[in-house]
Amino acid sequence: MAPALIVLAAIFVYPLVDAFITSLMRWNLISNVKRWTGFGNYVAIFSDPAFPGVVRVTFIYSALSLFFEFSLGLALALMVRAGLRRALLGFPLMRVLILAPLLVAPLLWAFYFRSFYSPQFGLFNQVLEGLGLPTVLWVNDKNLAIFSLVLADVWQWTPFMFAILLAGLMALPTDVVEAARMDGAGGWRILFAIELPMLRPVLLVTLLIRTIDSLRYLDLVLVITQGGPGRSTEILNFLAYRTSFQEFQLGRGAALAFIVLALVMLAAAALLRVMWKASR
Question: How far apart are alpha carbons 256 and 267 in whole angstroms?
Fold first, then answer.
C-alpha cells in the first residue's frame, strides 16, 4: 500500500497542509509579502459583521436547493418507475432525456442561465411577455436573486437525484410491497411506511453527496450574480474566491476555504451519524 499512500499524500495531504499554513499568514499577492499572523485571519473573518449574513445566504441556498431537488427527483423517479413497470411507450426514452442537464458542464450551464435571466432579451421574460404578464428582474432584484440561483441549481442537479432514487426504487424487493397491498394498504401508505424506510440508506447517501456539493458550489454565483445585488447572493465559497483573487488577500481566502471545509465536514458527519443510527 505504500506507493498508493505516497501518491495520496502528494496530491491531497501536502496541498491541504500547505493551504492551512497559508491561512495562518497575511499574504498579499500584489506585494508578495508574507507575514505570520497565526489565527489572525480567522479572528478577522469571525469578527466581520457581514460574515453571519454570508453564512445565512449559504445555508438558505443549500437548503432550498436540496429540498426542491429531492422533492422533484423523487416525484420524477416514482412517475418513471410506474411507467416502466407498465411498459408505457416513451418512458425508457424519458428516463434518458431527464438526465440531459447532467451532460452539460456546470460552468456552461451557468452561462446559459445568465442569458435566460437577461431583463430585455432573456428567455424567461420573453415567455412572460408572450403570456401577457409583466417581466421580472430576476437576478437584478435582491429579493429574487437567491431564488433565481436556486432555480438554476435545481434545473441541473434534480436529474442526479432522479437517477439515484430511481435506481434505488427499482431495486426494492416487490414481495413486501405485494404483501402490504394484499393486506389493503394504499399507494401512499406503501410509499411512506414501506418503500421510503427501505430506501433510507440511498436517500441519506444522495443527500450527503448533494449537501457537500451545494455547500462548496461556486459556478452559478461566479457567472450569474457575482454575489449581488449588494451581497444578497454572496455565499462562502464566492467570498473566499473574491478575497483571494479580487482583493488579493490569499491568507484570508485560504482561511475562508477551511471554514467551508469545516462546515462541509460537520454536515457530512451529521448525515453519517443518521445513517449509522438507521442501520442499527
Answer: 17
User: C-alpha distances in angstroms, 234 versus 62, 175, 198, 251?
Assistant: 12, 49, 38, 19
Residue 63 grid coordinates: 437548503
- How far apart are alpha carbons 135 and 69 in whole angstroms? 26
Cell numbers standing for residue 36: 505570520
The overall pTM is greater than 0.85:
yes
Say if residues 4 and 229 touch (Cβ distance below 8 Å): no
E-state strands within the chain? 25-28, 33-36
Distance between CA atoms of residues 220 and 3, nearest Å: 38
DSSP state of 12: I
Is the distance from CB of 73 to CB of 155 less than 8 angstroms?
A: no
Q: What angle do CA 142, 111, 57 make, to 5 degrees?
A: 35
What are the pLDDT digits (tens) for 39-92?
A: 989 999 999 898 999 999 999 999 999 999 999 999 999 999 988 888 888 888
pLDDT digits (tens, 9 = 90+) for 207-251: 888 888 888 778 889 889 888 888 889 999 999 999 988 888 889
Domain boundaries, the chain: 56-225
Domain over 56-225 is classified CATH 1.10.3720.10: yes
- Contact present, 221 and 234 (Cβ < 8 Å): yes
